[in-house]
Amino acid sequence: MLEKLRYLTSGESHGQALACVIDGIPANLSLSAADINPDLARRQKGYGRGGRMKIESDTVQLLSGIRHGKTLGSPITLLIENRDWANWCEIMNPEQNIRVQGSGNRNMEPVTRPRPGHADLSGALKYNTHDIRNILERSSARETAARVAAGAVAKKFLSEFNIKIISYVTEIGGQGQSKEHRIQNTDFKALLSIFKKAEASPVRCPDEKVEKKMIGKITHAMKKGDTIGGVFEVVVLGVPPGLGSYIQWDKKLDAKLTCSLMSIQAIKGVEIGLGFEMSRKHGSEVMDEIFYEAQKRRSAKVQKSFEQFGFYRKTNNAGGIEGGMSNGMPVIIRAAMKPIPTLKTPLSSIDILSRKPFKAAYERSDVCAVPAASVIGEAVTALAIADSLLVKFGGDSMEEAQRNYQGYLRQLREF
User: Fold this and answer.
1) DSSP structural state of residue 114
2) Alpha carbon distance 305, 314 (integer Å)
């Protein structure tokens, strides 16, 4: 659904590397690996992560689209090597057709037992393969490392327009705060404070009491050989009113955002603002009333608030989006992640060759990846917001995009 900012990822979980090509970033944006690597590291953290995180230490290589620290306006190519490739180079070698039986290496054997909750069986049927490894390698959430790298580029672009994206975990295993308590917080500094607390938490939860309960839930699941899911929120600060459009369904900002969040592995639900809770209330309880004060038409920093245009709201139940467009309030998106379906205590399945019942195959996995998913949520949100910004303001260079943006802000001040 992205219109101006396109990106593709490639690579398998145990392949040689992951790659991403991003097309649409204007020329003259300052960009280096140091702008991307911190988010790659954040994605790998969190209580409940699996053994893979002890092997990989993701860093990015910039292969194209950048010269002397500045983007060229041409496609940007990012590469993230898989350190575990050394243990899988024979099994995943693209130059050989390996089909060895009884080699002593269990990974050499075809995977024929689909795991419930994964892409395994549907993918095997769709792509007509009797080795499920051909499916699980690409459908793995390892792919999200490439998207986090792309999202970091989008974040750097958005920072030039004083737009900041943050996230935090609000619920794990049913432990969390009420939606009403969270959604009303529209103050820029308060939201940044929440983010700072989340960054210091092993489960990315800003509430220490809730954090302890979340850790307890994860530990309990770990001991049982089980997994656990949860909910995270992504907040976009400094978004000007008018991104997105009501003109066509695929131009709506909320449509782009929900599509982006739902594309993350294991995400089963997305809400904007108060979301499903709105359906349980009267209209008079949830619509964000509009106010105006002439004295608010001041030269406040754009990143703090768009109240300098005089119009403001005291609540943000809409999550910063009305009629498919941003309204100047913080954009708030919430995503629900199911428990990871790969279990140490595997569930029942059927061998696709023998048709006999078996326990599903176990691939090294996490117990809980909700904290990591929130970082991935930031990335895909950044890409969707950056795309909408480029649709509205265009520009082949950063200077042109900034001129267009500043002209729009003048239009808002003069409205």
Assistant:
1) P
2) 12
Question: Letter for the amino acid at 292?
Answer: Y
Cα-Cα-Cα-Cα dihedral of 373, 379, 380, 383, to 10°? Answer: 180
pTM of the predicted model, to two decimals? 0.93
- Beta strand 311-313 with 290-292 is antiparallel
Assigned token pair, 373: 């998913």
Q: How far apart are CA 231 and CA 353, in angstroms?
A: 37
First vs last Cα of the chain: how many Å apart? 31
DSSP label at residue 307:
G
Phi, psi of 302 (to 5 degrees): -60, -40
pLDDT tens string 259-316 = 999 999 999 999 999 999 999 999 999 999 998 887 665 544 434 456 667 888 888 9
Element (H, E) at 180: helix 179-183
Question: Residues 410, 181: contact at Cβ < 8 Å?
Answer: no
Backbone phi, then psi, for 261, in 5-degree steps?
-70, -40
Q: Which of 371, 382, 381 is nearest to 44 (CA)?
A: 371
Domains identified in the chain and CATH numbers: 6-414 (3.60.150.10)
* Burial class for 177, CB neighbours closer than 10 Å (0-12, 13-18, 19+): middle
Q: Judge whether residue 217 has pLDDT over 80.
A: yes
| Six token digits for residue 158 | 């958005």
